[in-house]
Acyl-CoA dehydrogenase (Sphingobium quisquiliarum P25), 396 residues
Amino acid sequence: MSGAGPERTAAIAARVEAFVRDVVAAYETDPRRDHHDCPAEELVAELKQKAREAGVLTPHILPDGSHLTQRETAIVLAKTGLSPLGPLACNTAAPDEGNMYLLGKVGSPQIRERFLRPLVEGRTRSAFFMTEPALEGGAGSDPSMMMTACHQDGNHWVINGRKAFITGAKGAGIGIVMAKSADGACMFLVDLPDPAIRIDHIPGTIDSSMPGGHAVLTIDNLRVPADQMLGNSGEGFQYAQVRLSPARLSHCMRWLGACIRANEIATDYANRRMAFGKTLIDHEGVGFMLAENLIDLKQAELMIDWCADVLDTGSLGTAESSMTKVAVSEALMRVADRCVQVMGGMGVTKDTIVEQVFREIRAFRIYDGPTEVHKWSLAKKIKREWKAAQAGTEQP
């Protein structure tokens, strides 16, 4: 995979696609699952080892530590998403992929060596501790409501608070914890497990692709060395913004791959299944659904490419990633829903991944910001720009 440019990206993507289709897909019926139906750690470790042997572990980060561009990453991560297990096998799954991106961008050499390297090598998992219990008044889609507090005590920081929907906290070896000091938001790197972080509850959720589920937990006098703060006190939201847009986009990349595969399965079914004297594909109602899937999949791909190009210019791309998250999650929901409908009874069974993809995409419309929050944020931007334009037209 020497060289650079489109040829290099195409070679990486081809190897990833072959691995996911030929190796990973066979594990989709593997019974090694926890009681929430999430992949067991043993299964994840086995898949990562196979990816390591195939040379496709963490394929978006090159051997010299450099990161593919966002446009290149989009091509590769879509291929890992062709199976719900693909991102786990290839080490491109959330929240690890977003955490790797953040630490690679802003981590000190010491932090990159201690916390980033094990993630890139697939030797451990991570969790991102930001969201808090909504009914307790904590931060969710509005991070300014953060209640988890921290204060300095000598050469340590002490953190107390509650967190909710922390993906993969159970079983993770590294945590990125957000808390609020007198200066504002802060971000810390911590080793897990830690007795000061107590998992209270892991709710059953509609999705089941992420090991460890989405934990609700209590942080009780967690002591973190001062040199494990990312940046300085009060800079936490600044670093969260660095992670935010690429993480939203990579979700879109992975689930685009999943819906491409679901559509392949539904298309195959429609071309084989006979009803009322002809194959399903020849019934206009079914054929039109599959045609609409192609349209939505292409539009999702184009939105992802557009947003990736914006991020590759160095822009934070906050508005662009919001638009892409809304457009892609809603389009893929339509695709997944049609795939279920085309397959009828088969579509709601676990005999194919179509049923799981439908569930996962429904959850995707909520995490990393619900559709409505992104629309609200965009509406505020529209208002700000309108007011600025009006002020510019006023005569002195």
In short: The chain has three domains: 6-125, 127-234, 237-387.
